[in-house]
Design a protein that fits this description.
By secondary structure, this protein is an alpha/beta fold. It has two domains: about 180 residues, NAD(P)-binding Rossmann-like Domain (Rossmann fold, 3-Layer(aba) Sandwich), CATH 3.40.50; about 130 residues, N-(1-d-carboxylethyl)-l-norvaline Dehydrogenase, domain 2, CATH 1.10.1040. It is built from twelve helices and twelve strands. The strands form two sheets. It has an eight-stranded mixed sheet. Strands 4-3-10-9 form a four-stranded mixed sheet, covered by helices on one side. Helix 1 packs across helix 5.
């Protein structure tokens, strides 16, 4: 299986390590500094699923798609930040031959609305989405640590397309160390993750604490409860659904299992702010606000945390 990892942040490197370990043919598209580090030191993975090191000769990496040559891929896995989705879609659209015959694009990104940005250039049956609730932390340019894991990676189609084509990809990722499954209800999975992320990411980033701490104090629990009710109301009004019928059912699972499983994790949003980088807020609470405005639903708690994180982006 030939796979291109488009974007070599923490998630991209983590997934690349699984696929290389599973003997897939892997190419990585990354920034020059990352490419140089990978070519020099290989790819290093540590963390809860054990250590793995891929030698530089076990994979290839390039700074841009034009450097790839005449290759084609079974899968292109988009692992960029959500705010780069529009650029990634346009960039990949100029190199459609890379998909080969029957090739697919799979989005391994946070937030809502990533796949839609690709519909301008690609057919629905070429686009698949993944839900990832695994914590990745990038220690160095060529090193990634897997810090927490709440559930298997799920891959499916938002457009009702056949999912049998992603079964082998799921098997390869699982073989490489992270359980991965085909999902027939990926929309529900993504909105479940939206609920999880829209509560923990901004509040954890604003307060500078790991997820578990937020559930220990009554005032932050009340804030997250209010955020969840707004997200649930907006989701339903927009015609989407998730695995729970009401906010209370979600919050029961959220506090009993989801937060404890990732209690020590500090959100990627907090890590981005600490590094002076742009966050993915627009694809998380920002996406909720966009839908809220469209359907004329008040979402003051989501608006408040959105504005605070945006202030912190400017401040950093």
């Amino acid at each position: 299986m030939r796979i291109c990892i488009y974007g070599a942040g923490a998630v991209g490197l983590g997934l690349a390590s699984c696929l290389i370990k599973a003997d897939a043919e892997v190419d990585i598209i990354a920034r020059p500094g990352t490419v140089n580090a990978l070519k020099k030191g290989g790819l290093v993975r540590t963390g809860i699923f054990g250590n793995f090191r891929a030698r530089p000769e076990q994979f290839e990496c390039f700074c841009k798609l034009t450097d790839v040559g005449q290759k084609s891929y079974d899968f292109i896995m988009v692992c960029t930040k959500s705010f780069d989705s529009a650029y990634a879609a346009k960039d990949l659209s100029g190199h459609k031959r890379l998909l080969g015959r029957g090739g697919r694009i799979v989005h391994f990104q946070n937030g809502w609305g990533n796949a839609e940005k690709f519909l301008r250039y690609f057919e629905q049956d070429q686009l698949y989405s993944a839900r990832v609730i695994t914590g990745f932390s990038r220690r160095k340019a060529n090193e990634v640590e897997i810090t927490v894991h709440a559930d298997a990676i799920h891959i499916g189609s938002l457009f009702g397309c056949d999912t049998s084509c992603v079964k082998n990809l799921c098997r390869m990722i699982t073989k490489g160390g992270i359980q991965c499954e085909v999902a027939e209800s990926i929309e529900k999975d993504l909105w479940a993750k939206m609920l999880y992320n829209c509560l923990l990411n901004p509040v954890g980033a604003i307060l500078g604490v790991p997820y578990g701490r937020l559930a220990e104090v009554n005032c932050t629990r009340k804030l997250m409860d209010a955020l969840a009710r707004e997200v649930f109301d907006v989701m339903k009004k927009a015609g989407y659904s998730t695995h729970w019928d009401c906010t209370e059912d979600f919050l029961e699972v959220f506090y009993a299992r989801l937060v404890p499983d990732t209690a020590q994790h500090k959100s990627s949003m907090l890590q981005d702010l600490a590094a002076g980088k742009r966050t993915e807020m627009d694809a998380l609470n920002g996406a909720v606000l966009k839908l809220a405005n469209k359907y004329k639903i008040a979402a003051p708690y989501n608006q408040a945390v959105y504005e605070l994180v945006k202030f912190m982006e400017v401040k950093t």
